[in-house]
Amino acid sequence: MEKLFFYDLETTGVRYWKNGIHQISGAIVIDGKVKERFNFRVKPYKDALIEEEALKIANVTKEDLETDIYEPFEIIYKKLTQMLTKYVNKFDRKDKFHLVGYNNASFDNAFLRAFFVQNGDKYFGSLFWADSIDCYVLASNFFRKERASFENFKQMTVAKKLGIEVDEARLHDAEYDIDLCMQIYERVAIL
């Protein structure tokens, strides 16, 4: 059984050990079927460094993070783990999700793992395989013969090159970005 956890994060900076998450979005896909989609707005943990530059990228303000739209990170952690354990038995070493995202191997995965630790959970590996599926890497292989001609390799650029319509005004909203990622995955994954 193939269990994929497509996800994207928006953060308060680029350092997982100092900054926090303010949005987690994605989809649980099992054997090619979307079982559940989610979009959580997160109040970062109390000691998280919140950098204005990072918030601007996602069109969010510090004041936004204090509204009721953003739930405490402990509550989001509970919601997320309750959702995950509907599909994975964390006590079965052979039953785990593959993490799937765009540039997740070098960025999002560390933030997600830190999110678990911030919630007192050292068992991230009981839900997810240690290796992940990074659509950035898959696309690099897919476009290996023409990679040098790309202006950059941002998700938007790759999506457009694959013929995916991109609404630039919606970029850096994790819910929108994960939709782009899933469409990229459908085109570049070798199944």
Write a compact overview of the structure shown:
The protein has seven helices and six strands. The chain is of the alpha/beta class and 191 residues long. Helix 5 packs parallel to helix 7 (174-188) and helix 6 (155-161) crosses helix 7.
SSE diagram, text form:
Layout (H helix, E strand, L loop, with lengths): L2 E9 L9 E10 L2 E11 L8 H6 L4 H4 L5 E2 H12 L12 E5 L2 H15 L9 E7 H8 L12 H7 L12 H15 L3
Helix pairs in contact: 5-7, 6-7
Task: Name the descriptors.
six-stranded mixed sheet, alpha/beta, Nucleotidyltransferase, domain 5, 191 residues
Protein architecture, described:
- With 191 residues, the chain is of the alpha/beta class.
- It has a domain of 133 residues: Ribonuclease H-like superfamily/Ribonuclease H (Nucleotidyltransferase, domain 5).
- It has 7 helices and 6 strands.
- A 6-stranded mixed sheet has the order 4-3-2-1-5-6.
- β2 and β3 form a beta hairpin.
- α5 packs parallel to α7 and α6 crosses α7.
- The longest helix is centred in the middle third of the chain and has 15 residues.
- It is globular and about 45 Å long.
- It starts with a strand and ends with a helix.
- 34% of the residues are buried.
- The mean pLDDT is 96.
